[in-house]
């Protein structure tokens, strides 16, 4: 009797789980369809992309769009530009934001709360408001048409405030006993941070790493302002520059380039998605 009840409970659980997956799959279609359309449209001839009614699969498959991705512009170099900028920004953002977050959470210094509040206020200032004085300063230093502004601004700009906030919230829940035991063993404050606190901050590192990588890899506005030559373009800017000899957009080529651009983002998120969710979940635990 008990076995029959247990079997029935397991059956109901499977049905509930299956129903949930079906509902989630149906709910994801409006978000998934544009990505699928982008991918399959990159295999279409240019005159087939805007057919009415629109079609998902190509009637005539062609690789011309992907071939022109690499011949119309130095796409591989631009891909490399975006990758190395994103990696540098991600690593630097994690390290500096973790240090700042640890200081705000664990070290008492004058005006600590006022400084943190002032830093949070920086998130309210749009990038478009400050871009003119920043451009003037960058031009005066002779750094236009270089990648330095695209590296420095995300690391020290308003977007870094969110990273500092995530690390601060994580380190607020860091057990004091670990610090006290390490200090009794003669470990310095820097040693506690690098040898104990930072290795235990994996969820926060994953959350900040993914956000920093996505923000930097998809950067467009700053690249549009500071970069001039195709060899220095990043992918966000390069995709918009696929035009034929008459100035018309090469839509299948743009979609092909956009499809290739999505690959690193998917890889990074799939690798660290579990830690990313944990890091965001822990952000509001303490204040």
Counting copies of identical and different chains, the oligomeric state is single chain
Helix content: over 70%
Count of individual helical segments: 13
Q: Report the mean per-residue pLDDT as an integer.
A: 83
Order of helices and strands: HHHHHHHHHHHHH
Number of separate strands: 0
What's the alpha carbon Rg, rounded to whole Å?
Answer: 24 Å
Proportion of strand residues: under 5%
Biggest beta sheet summary: none
The SS-based structural class is mainly alpha
Short description:
This protein has 287 residues and is an all-alpha fold.
How would you portray this structure in words?
It is a single chain. With 287 residues, the chain is mostly helical. It has 13 helices and no strands. Helix 2 (64-71) crosses helix 13 (251-282), helix 3 (75-106) runs parallel beside helix 6 and helix 3 (75-106) packs across helix 7. 28% of the residues are buried.
Notable features of this structure?
single chain, 287 residues, mainly alpha, 71% helix
């Amino acid at each position: 009797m008990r076995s029959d009840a247990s079997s029935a409970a397991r059956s109901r659980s499977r049905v509930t789980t299956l129903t949930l997956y079906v509902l989630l799959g149906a709910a994801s279609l409006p978000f998934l369809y544009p990505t699928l359309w982008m991918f399959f449209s990159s295999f279409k001839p240019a005159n087939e992309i805007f057919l009415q009614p629109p079609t998902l699969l190509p009637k005539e498959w062609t690789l011309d769009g992907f071939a022109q991705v690499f011949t119309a512009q130095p796409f591989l170099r631009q891909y490399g530009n975006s990758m190395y900028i994103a990696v540098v920004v991600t690593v630097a953002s994690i390290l500096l934001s973790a240090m700042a977050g640890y200081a705000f959470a664990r070290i008492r210094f004058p005006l600590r709360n006022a400084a943190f509040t002032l830093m949070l206020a920086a998130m309210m200032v749009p990038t478009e408001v400050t871009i003119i004085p920043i451009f003037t300063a960058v031009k005066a230093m002779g750094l236009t048409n270089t990648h330095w502004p695209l590296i420095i601004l995300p690391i020290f700009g308003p977007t870094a405030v969110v990273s500092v906030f995530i690390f601060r919230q994580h380190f607020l829940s860091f057990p004091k006993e670990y610090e006290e035991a390490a200090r009794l063993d003669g470990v310095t404050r820097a040693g506690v941070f690098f040898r104990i606190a930072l290795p235990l901050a994996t969820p926060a590192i994953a959350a900040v790493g993914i956000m920093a990588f996505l923000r930097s890899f998809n950067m467009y506005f700053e690249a549009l302002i500071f970069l001039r030559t195709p060899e220095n373009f990043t992918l966000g800017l390069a995709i918009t520059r696929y035009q034929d000899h008459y100035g018309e957009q090469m839509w299948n080529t743009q979609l092909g380039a956009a499809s290739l651009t999505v690959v690193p983002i998917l890889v990074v998120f799939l690798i660290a998605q579990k830690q990313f969710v944990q890091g965001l979940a822990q952000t509001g635990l303490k204040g």
